[in-house]
Fold this sequence. Notes:
Number of strands: 5
Mean pLDDT: 91
Amino acid sequence: MEISVTVNGKNYTADVEPNLLLVDFLRDNLGLTGTKDDGGSTSGVCTVLLNGVSVKSSFILAVQADGGEITTIEGVAENGKLSVIQAAFWETHAVQNGFCTPAMILSSMDLLKQNPQPTEAEIRTWLDGIYSRDTGYQNVVRAIQYAAEKLQSSSH
C-alpha cells in the first residue's frame, strides 16, 4: 500500500506492507533510530507525535499514519539548537541512560501543549505510559516543570 506522510517536516511517499508497524517504518525505512523499538511491549519508548498527539508507534500501523504529520526526536531541535524541553532535560539531568528520554521528551511536548502548567501529580500521571528502569522520575518531573516555566515566560 502506498502511504504519504510528513516526518519532521519532510514529505515521504512509500509503498509499505499493510502490517508494517509505524516504529519499523520510521527506523527501517527512514533511518530514524531515535524512536526505540520496544518489541511491542507497553514500555512507551516507541512514543512519537502523530498530528501533535503522543502515540506508541509500535501499536500503530504505518498505513494508519497515512496523510499524517509525525514528529520523532530527530525533529524536535529548533534551528540546530535543543528545544526548550530538550534543554530542560539536559539542564536538570533528566536524560538518564537515554533509551526512554526521546519518548519522555515527545510525550511532555504533548502534555505541555494540552496543559501549559501541569502539577507534579499531573506530570507523573502523564508519564505512566513510559516505563523507565533508571529513574524515580524526579529529575524528569523537574525537567518538565522547568520547561513549562521557560515556555510560560517566553510567551509573555
